[in-house]
Amino acid sequence: MRKIILFFGLLLLWMAGFATHQRAGEITYKHLSGLTYEFTIITYTYTPSTADRPEIPVHWGDNSIDTIPRLSKTSVGTDISKNVYVAKHTFSSWGVYSVTFEDPNRNSGIINIPGSINIPFFIETILVINPSLGANNSVQLLNPPLDNGCVGVTYYHNPGAYDPDGDSLSYKLIDCRGMDGLPIPGYTLPQASQYISIDEITGDLVWETPMGLGEYNIAILISEYRKGQFIGSVVRDMQITIAACDNKPPKIFCPDTCVIAGNFLSLDILVTDEKSTQVTLTATGAPYMVTTSLPIPINVSGAPPLPTNFDWQTVCAHIKKNPYQLLLKATDNGPQVHLTSFKTVNINIIAPAPQNLTSNPIKNSIALEWDTYSCSNAKEIHIYKKSGASNFEPDICETGIPSHLGFQFLAKINSSNTYYLDDGTIIPVVHGREHCYRIVAVFADGAESIASNETCAAIVNDAPMITNVDVTQTSENEGTIFVSWLVPPEIDVVNFPGPKYEYRIFRSTNDKNNFEYIATTYSLFDTSYLDKLLNTKEIQYYYKIEFWGENKTGEIELIETSNPASSIVLSIEETDKRLILTWNEDVPWENYAYSIYRFNDNTQQFDSLTTVFDNYYEDFGLMNGVTYCYYVKSVGQYLLPDTVAPLYNRSQVQCGIPVDNIPPDTPVTEIKTDCDKVTFLWTFPNSDSYLDAYQYYIYYQPNYQTEMFCIDSFPNFEVCFPTPCRHIIENLPSITGCYAMLVKDETGNISELTSKLCFDVDECNTYRLPNVFTPDGDEFNETWRPFPYSNVEKINLEVYDRWGKRVFKTEDPNINWDGKSEHTHRPLPEGTYYYGCDVFLYTLDGVKKKFLSGIVIILRGNGARQNR
User: Fold this and answer.
1) pTM score, two decimals?
2) Taking the CB of the first residue and of the last residue of the chain, which one, N or C, has fewer CB atoms within 10 A?
């Protein structure tokens, strides 16, 4: 034992000799090739300390450790040295690796790290090697952790994280860590008059405001995400020195902005400072990390207010999806402490719009053409299409096609292409409809350009235009549909001079394929047909019309075919006291409104309920069990001038019966216990919920290893809104366990089970034994029994006399020992006896054994002696 004490004493002396050392640090990396990465470990140390580190151990997270020699040591401030260590490491496979460095000592006297001189300094970087996400480079921290602060003055810092891969970054304050990366006992964030926090997007750290002098350590976790997935992180552990001073930090004024690639950006910046005579402004960040056309560096000093500009000639190579973060840093010349402030400025470099998009009809297709795109680094051109003009004008900095405009994605092609033929294969090209287009350039990281101009065109309208597919009678076998169409507006009378023209009518069920011929009309103006003997109750019917005409040689020839059009099919979802109506149709015109009709039993007519503008309607306030019947009438038009409008078409008649199939609301529960019984209390979100409850069920889970099961059920006995309802559960084998409730309504619908609420063994009386009892015949305290208890399954109790002879044994938790020997069954003499007791307790983790030991004293009065 003395050798062990001596060893630890020498160890503490060695650690003290190397104290006042590590102040800040981080680990970053870049990908070289394959599974090989180059790591840079940077530490900031107290220069006068004897604890220099010419080499350090690095754990690679793959069960290997390397000793890394120092590459450089430079002075970066008063008594502060920057140490740089660089090493390459090749991992054996894909995976997630924790790369760490631990130093035996921080410096002494850190306010928020108790005993900091003996607390190791620990930093960690996570590397994710995932082929599906691609190779990754960690963030690079461009701002050193050297900014000091003053008591009562707002402190600012920003690590200046730059991600060379353009990944999304997230910032978070975490606890500093010590030996083996474990939490430091007693660590807290520095005390603040209001708060200390970091902006999770910009990385701006604000300490509002320091309250005491001294040195403090914080840790910043910077995480990277790619395609929404975590891909790595870096931790900076840094020290902040807070002094006393009469100063305030500078203020920086500069707005976020955007610029179209190729334009020159000149951004106005102003620095003010009400306490200092000079300020210095510098700039770092992503704009200075580009490889072509760098912005002009900023490093200016002068008396405040200090105006300057950030100037940058942008080029197409600068285009990216996420903004560039320009980090401005202003430092004053305060007499006691030079204070610093930061401002993160977001600069979006956006792609220019494709130019001169045009559209021209070619038979039943539309040809699109545009100029060669001005940025050769674009990956693709995305083509969008809609019916009718949008009249959209992009806002400043707005890229892509807003979803609310109604454009559909049509196709993507190589960015070098300048032509696309829309033949209707992907999105139909419809007669009688104006088709409008826009295009957008898209880059490798998903960045989109400003949308192009809009162009619209319509194909030659030489086909019949169906106007009606109107269900006139609903029946399973005698249904009828009225079909009508318009005479083709642009007949080619040169090639088809007539006078013979005819329309051939085709029908399909439930889709636009497998059309069958059903009838012909033989006049140019015979443009309607009543289709009979149909199952309009269950089947959706599609129609198309072929237009045939006499050519120059007198032969009948197919001229053009209409676009297909379907009937409207109404569906009804039945639920509690309401019916949900939905319907669908596939037609070449645009339906812009729908009238809802419901059958009135009194008038025997259909009444108009309302008009809606999409394919959905809920009819509320109905009676369960009653039949309601509906149909829908659409109102539409073709989006070309000089066509018949409006167009009216009806669905089939569909009926539904409201039914209570909605589960009751789940109550909000609370449980209480007096360690003998459990009281359940519950409320509902509103009073109607109580009325829906018919039966309650209580579920119980004795411990985490078992399943929940029902232990009690009872009817809805009262409406107790807003006072909580209550129910008492008695005669449980143990109070310990988890409880939950569900509710059933009168039709059998069952609510979700409420959240589990649990009692553990420590919620109630523990098992305790008195140290004396008096078995003397006076009927008071005659037996040795425990104090009131709960949650005990059994015990194993043995009692011994002073010579070590066992005199009593039981497994009954109530004990009830009358003071007699288990051998002679005669009363034992007065005196002190010794016991050991294994108590088996019900806990949420199952039955656990607890050992008790102690003494019990037997005392007897005259009554006991007389009985003997």
Assistant:
1) 0.68
2) N
